[in-house]
Amino acid sequence: GQNIDQPTEMTATEGAIVQINCTYQTSGFNGLFWYQQHAGEAPTFLSYNVLDGLEEKGRFSSFLSRSKGYSYLLLKELQMKDSASYLCALLGSNYQLIWGAGTKLIIKP
Amino acid sequence: IAGITQAPTSQILAAGRRMTLRCTQDMRHNAMYWYRQDLGLGLRLIHYSNTAGTTGKGEVPDGYSVSRANTDDFPLTLASAVPSQTSVYFCASSVLAGGTDTQYFGPGTRLTVL
């Protein structure tokens, strides 16, 4: 089977750095996505990793280790607008996305 | 350019009623998807379409049907609504099918079945 796990909620301070982890189990791996979802809004794409390593996009970076079944999203220089849920999604053997429940990130001034 | 639109924005429905959620995209994307999102759970795929004229079942298809008569429209029908179908429904699309492409989401429909 396939499953995906991420923390329910995290709190961080404006200007700081936060790392949101995602662990998964799958029989066939075809990629891992991160999406951002503000409360009451639609998810929007952040990153896609299919190979091991770090992908950097401005203040956001995403890391993947396929051997460990592990990914993280790193957010630097946190801003209040980064308060949102961050969704990890696994593309498994059937090429359908399996979504984590999301990590709600609360930014405090 | 609107992207993806969904209608209605929200709806309260009596159990047993039939309901169609509408989804339209103007990006000429090949693939379209319907998800439901419930508190504490991840998005769950209901049905998908890789291209106009084809549809497939996702993780939770029971009680739902879809059609894809053309590239732009992908309506989701609840034949006889039940309270467990209370959820937020998101339609999404991607240029390519197969899951490796970025999915673009509509604003969602909040459905309450009483």
Short description:
The complex is a heterodimer of chains A (109) and B (114). By secondary structure, chain A is mainly β.
Question: Would you write up a description of this structure?
Answer:
The complex is a heterodimer of chains A (109) and B (114). Chain A has 109 residues and is an all-beta fold. Chain A has no helices and 11 strands. In chain A, strand 6 (53-57) and strand 7 form a beta hairpin. The model of chain A has no long low-confidence stretch (mean pLDDT 95). Chain B has 114 residues and is mostly beta strands. Helices cover 0% and strands 45% of the residues of chain B. Chain B has strands at 4-7, 10-13, 19-25, 31-37, 44-49, 56-57, 64-66, 76-78, 87-94, 104-105, 109-113. In chain B, the strands form 2 sheets. In chain B, strands 2, 4, 5, 6, 9, 10 and 11 form a 7-stranded mixed beta sheet that branches. Chain B is globular and about 35 Å long. The chains are: A mainly beta (109), B mainly beta (114). At the A-B interface, strand 5, strand 9 and strand 10 of A face strand 5 and strand 10 of B.
- Which value, in Å, is the CA radius of gyration of chain A? 13 Å
Counted by DSSP, the helix tally of chain B is 0
User: What level of helicity do the residues of chain B show?
Assistant: under 10%
Summarize model confidence as the mean pLDDT of chain B: 96
